[in-house]
Every structure is written in C-alpha cells, then in structure tokens.
Amino acid sequence: MARERTGVAPGVQRPQVTVALAGNPNSGKTTLFNALTGARQHVGNYPGVTVEKKEGDFEHDGMKVHVIDLPGTYSLTAYSPEELVARNVVLNEAPDMVVDVVDASNLERNLYLAVQFMELGIPMILAFNMSDLAEARGHSIDIERLSELFQVPIIRMVAHKGEGLHELKQAIIQVAGQTPPQQPTTVKYGRHIEAELTKLTESLAGSAPESGRPTARWLALKLLEGDEAVVGQIRREARNAIEILQKVDESRNLLARELGDDAEILIADRRYGFISGACQEAVRSTVETRHSMSDRIDLVLTHRVLSIPIFLLMMFLVFKLTFAVGDPLMGWIEDFFAWLGDTITAAWPEGAAPLLLSLIVDGIIGGVGGVLVFLPNILLLFLAIAILEDSGYMARAAFIMDRFMHKIGLHGKSFIPMLIGFGCTVPAIMATRTLENERDRLTTMLVAPLMSCGARLPIYALIIPAFFPEAWHARMLWLIYFIGIVLAIICAKLLRSTLFKGEAAPFVMELPPYRLPTVRGVFVHMWERGWLYLKKAGTLILGVSIIMWALLTFPQETEYSRGYEQAIKAVSLQQLPAEEAVGLIAELEQARASEELANSFAGRIGHAIEPLIKPLGFDWKIGTASIGAFAAKEVFVAQMGIVYSVGEADEESVPLRDKLRDNYSPLVGFCIMLFSLISAPCMATIAVTRRESNSWKWALFQLGGLTVLAYGITLIVYQVGSAFGIGI
C-alpha cells in the first residue's frame, strides 16, 4: 500500500489508509467520527447481524483516510454482538490502524480496551478525549510519558470543540507511513500465566498465521479467558482441536490451583495492574481535587431512598408538560382541520362526485388530520426525553433501577431499552442488542411493548380529556404509564422463572458526567422522532385511513328498515316549530347513517366480533377501530374519527371527544386505554421482534401473549368496575 504524503499528480489515485475508530460508550467516539468525516458518511448493517455499520472518509496531506466506526464496547472479549463485531472488523477487515477514543477523565476504565488492541499487535493511536473535563477534575496527565510506556502516539483532544483534530489527522498519516509499523507494548502476565501461554502458543502452531492478526499468542490468551467464539473457531478449524482444548482445560485448572482464581479474572487483573502502574507514573491529581459537580448531583439523584421518588417525579413532570403546553396547540390544529373540512364541503359543487368528497373530507382529512392533531403532544414528550438523555440522567435511571431489575432476573441494562420504549417500541427492541445474555435479550424484547410508546399517546390524549376533569389529566396519564411498567416487571419475572431460567448477568455501566444539553442537539433528537411520526401519518396511516374509509363506505346498497326519505319529507311538510323539525330530521338522518354503517364491510366485521368484546365494555365501533390499530396504534384515533363522522354526521362539526363522552362511560374510556396499552403491538414491532430474535416463534408468542393478557386484564377491570359502579 502506498504511503506517499504529498505530490499527488492530477488524475493519479490517492494513496489510502483504513482506520478503525474504537472506544467505550460515552467516550465521545461518535462526535469524533462526525468531526473527521463530516458529510462523507454511509450507514448500513454488518453482514449477518443487526449491528449498525458506519463508515466515512476524509483527506489529509494527500492521503485519503477511510474510517470504520466500530460499535462502542468496553472489551474485545466477545460477549455481545457489538464486541464480536468490533473484534472481527480488526481481525478480518485488516484496517491499517486503530484510533482508540479514551475518556481522559476515566483513564483506567477506558485503557482496558486499549490494552486488548495492543495484544492484537495492531498499530494504534490513543485519542484522549474530554481532556478539558479531566483537567477540571484535577487530573494532570503526562501524555509524553504515557506514550512512552504504551509505545503508541497519544493525542490530547476535546472533540466537540474540534481541539486536537488536526493533530490526530497528522498522527494517522505518520503512523501509516511507518515501515515497519511500530508495535505497541506487550503486557507481561507473570511467570505462571506466561508459562501456560507459551505451552498453548506452541500447540497452536499452524492454527494461526505466522504474522499479522490474530497471532498464536492472542489466540492462546483468548482460550485461557474462555472466549466462546475463539473456542468455537479452534474446534472448527484446528486439525488438533481436541488436543488443544484439552491443554486449555489443563492450563486453566492449573492456574486456578496455583493462583486461587479463574484464568479470566487473573488475566484481567494483570491488565488492570499494567494500566494502574502506567497511570501512577504519568497521572497526578492536584491538591485541589474535589468531588466533581456530577458526583455531588449523584449523591442525591442516585440515593438509595430518594432516587426512585425523584425518578417517578421526573416522569410525572414530563407528562404534565406534555398536556399543559400541548393542549392549546392541539386545539388550534383541531380547529384548523375542522375548518378545512367545512371549507371543502361548502365549496364542493352540489351533487358532484359525492364519493370523492367523502374520501377527501372523511377519509383523508378526518383520518390523517385526526392523528396530526396530537403532534404537539408527541413533540413535547420527545423533547423532554431528549433533555433527560442528553443531560446524562437516563444513564442514572438505568443505574437506579438495577437493584429492581436484578430482583426480576434481568440485567440493569435491560432498563435502557424499556426507557427507549417510551418513545417507540421498534428502537427499544433493537436496543436489546447491547445485552450479552440471550435470555436477557429475549425477555426484554418480549416485554418492551408494555412500555407505553409515543404511538399510544394520541389515544390517551383523546380519551383522558374526554372523560376526566382537567385536574386529573396528568395523573391519569402517569397511572397508565405506571401500569405498563408494573406489568412489564411482572411478565419479565414470570418469563425468567419459566421459559428463560438462568443466572442474571452482572451489571457494569459507565455513568457519563452531567452535561447541559445543547439546544441544537435536543431539538434535532426531538425532530427526528417527530418526523418519523409525521412520515407514518403521511404514509401508513393515510393508506390505512383510506382502506378504513372504503370499508365504512361500501357496499352502498342497503335495505333500510323504513323509508327514511319519505319520513324526512313528511316531517318537512308538517307545520312544526323549526327547532323541533330540525331535531327530528337529524334523528332520522342519523338512524339511516347508522344502518348504512352497520351494512358496510367494517360494520359487519365489528358486529361479528362484538359478542367477544362486549364483556370488556366495547361495542362494534371500538372493536373495528382496535383491529385497524394493529397497523399502527395511532390509527385507532383516525378510525374512530371516521366512524363517527360517517355514523353520526350532522351539520355541526362536533369534536370526537364530545361524541365519545356522549356514547361511553369513563370506565369504558379507561378500558380502551388499558387494552391499547397491553394489547399486541403494531406490525412494525412484530416484524422487528422476528428479525432481532431470528425466529417467528417469539414474534408470534409476543403477538398472541399480549393480546390474551390485554383481554384478561381489561375484562377483570371492566367487570369489577361495573359491579361496584365505578366510572359508570
């Protein structure tokens, strides 16, 4: 590979170097990747797995640099898909070097990954990011000394400010030009471990390349650590696999007897010992070192007693903001769509294409418009979640909940996908990739839909103001979310006690320092999620709304139980007071519309399932809307709007909430929310569950199990509530 730095003639292909960008989560790796590559990025998935693959390019000093952004990981021991992918990229795609992004304020933890890259024998650069934060905490780092100890270049950086970016690019070009490349320091593991490594290295002769990656020493280390991926590789590829694995067991047993601990723990201790020794020589703390602001805040927010009430209060304030600010905006949008429908109806030529008018006003405006009404609530909820995420509080929420998660047999990290589930269940299920244990992944995946996603919020925003006084709005929303959390915990406990028995994995997670969220970052996150909602309203919901309109409109031939036209004419001919005549005609028109609706395809489906859902307090209208909501939960609102605009049309545009209030009790309203919360999630959720679990079995189990659970709980609530006269 060419390494010339300058003097590239026009038309001559520039030399290229490939860099793997690595680092712990929360080390600022993504910020650095964006700073290096800018708009020259492309995103996909690694072959065969659902881990996201990011790549980008930049040019410096006549050299084209291709950057592969490895998944954030704490280790190269392959427990999670992310760790396996990060390791395989370095081993199989043969990048020229690794740039390891290190949180300079937490050196010993972050340098563990660097030591593992050193053991691979790959040229490396350490980017000490957040150096300003380390200095603010009183850490004085002798970068030159540390660079000598590790035998790698170290660059001081503050990535979000662009500090050190030029120096890093220069270092990449310099390392690329070294022939032969400089090799990092090798960790020495002590007499006992080194002796066993030597034996295994000799046994592996011929099972590893003579030069390059992986080396026989690295394979021996991984075998001693019990790395399942390497054990499987040796079992498949090595000619003397049985002999090698037998020697591995003998070495592990010998080390356990002589040193009193498992080989994996002994190796990790030696690595941390190497890191600690280097830091003692090169890192000093000033006399003024005190607890950082993050530490002082954590004394309160992660307190054993106060942390849970504070977390619940945070969630309550989020919901309060969603309604207090969102309701007026929602009212303006509602008025706009009502005006739009009335304006189009008034301007439409009388008697011309009535079906097209109905499609536009009732299908498109009534359907999609009825969902867009709730956009302010959606944006405000996502805004609040983005602030909590960017400030660092969401990581504390996972830490706080770890004690409870372990009680139900789950990893503390399982709470992160559940928190993401408040925004959307699809990314929540995808976030389970970070869980190392398959039992934890499947359990979290199956219960994630019980965390009330943003798609359900339009249903709550419709039902709560319709049936409950204003003072109870935030309380009812908080209650419905709380019910989902409790059910998720109960179901997770049940699954871990039956289908997914086994020990819970230990919880290790970095708590990033608190940061003041940037206005741009928060609004970008809010808009990205809001835009997904808008796209769904403009595509999926529009399509479903049109289909639903057709089901409500056809067939048009109806055998009426009476002659409505003659009855309306008879009322008009009678000498009745104007108000009484208008009322009678409206009743007749509503009765006719009701028969038309009952005769439609949707009405027939609804009536067919009505005996099944009647014990829940639901009629055929609610049942029909619930079936359509399987495409997307928000569609329930659109369909109820269409049902009532067709079934009870009158001259005045009565808001859907008023129509619901006139036809149902608060108990039924609460049961609608409860069923929507628990029942089978949308089609997209089922699809992503199938993809992430790699099995239709678990996707269908999720679909059927949640539907049955929703029916059973809603049945109990309605029947008990009716027996005691609650909310009737």
User: What is the CATH C level class of one domain, in words?
Assistant: Alpha Beta
Mean pLDDT equals 80
N-to-C terminal Cα separation, in Å? 79 Å
Kindly name the structural category: alpha/beta
**Sheet with the most strands, sense and barrel status:** 7 strands, mixed
Instruction: Give the strand line-up of the largest sheet.
Output: 2-3-4-1-5-6-8
Radius of gyration: 32 Å
CATH homologous superfamily title of one domain: P-loop containing nucleotide triphosphate hydrolases
CATH topology of one domain: Rossmann fold
Stretches with pLDDT under 50, minimum 5 residues: 1-12, 287-291, 646-654
Question: Helix count?
Answer: 32
Write the layout of secondary structure elements.
Blueprint: E1 16-23, H1 29-37, E2 41-45, E3 52-60, E4 63-69, H2 81-92, E5 97-103, H3 107-120, E6 124-129, H4 131-136, E7 139-141, H5 143-150, E8 154-156, H6 165-176, H7 191-203, H8 216-225, H9 228-237, H10 241-259, H11 263-282, E9 283-285, H12 293-301, H13 307-347, H14 354-372, H15 375-391, H16 393-407, H17 415-420, H18 425-430, H19 438-447, H20 457-467, H21 473-497, H22 519-538, H23 540-553, H24 564-573, H25 578-599, H26 601-613, H27 620-628, H28 635-647, H29 656-663, H30 666-678, H31 683-693, H32 696-723
Parallel strand pairs: 1-4, 1-5, 5-6, 6-8
Antiparallel strand pairs: 2-3, 3-4, 7-9
